[in-house]
Amino acid sequence: MPLSWTRNGEVVELALGREPCNEIGLEMLGELERFLGELDVENTAALVIHSTVRGGFSAGANLRELYEGLVSRPVGEQAPEIADFIDRIHVVMDTLDMLPMTTIGVVHGVCFGGGFELALTCDVLVAERSARFCFPELRLGILPGFGGIPRLRRDVSNAVVRDLLLTGRSINAKKAIACGLVSQMVAPGEGLTAARAVATQATKFDRDALATTKRFMKPLPRADLDLEKQHFLRLAAKPALREALHKFVNSDDLRPYLP
How far is CA 122 from the centre of its chain? Predict the structure, then answer.
């Protein structure tokens, strides 16, 4: 299964385990929806999201699945399946973002594109030294479509946002902590331990006070999220995306996610 979760008292741990690197497609989306549907929100003070896959947290959207959806339609025609997927993934990301509990993401290795957008829904990010963050979407002729730009702008300075979005370059954990993207940088293999310590701290607080504080300090950028979705769907219907994905799916590169 691409996802699994466990509970220890008031702390839930969600493990991403889809090989090769937790690509977010229909299967992962369905599992995230199932998880949120089964999460006992009232009795959970903290959620830890981490990856059990060696390659990293997540390489992003399932680009091969996206390509198959595009080639099934004439050039210039927007695939309704893609619009439906974007609507559903936005609901999932927004729900994770606004959960009335402390959410902690543990990042190692690749954290690119849609995976980066998933990480940005977390309240606190713990990065192992191997972590690399990147938004490579411009290379595909699109922009992030899972809510990444509004959430990144909420968390870091405009200079960091522009550098990541307009260059497509990745930054390492050291740079991520320097710019305020992550709160802790730890040694390889120590991320989950650090996240569990944060989660334990969250269980010590009054739940109403915790949820109220989170809503106040971390508002959902609703208007910008809706606008980003519109831009993504318009760009996704253009030939540039199809051409870039054709190169990607036919690549012999063993590490196609890296710039």
Answer: 9
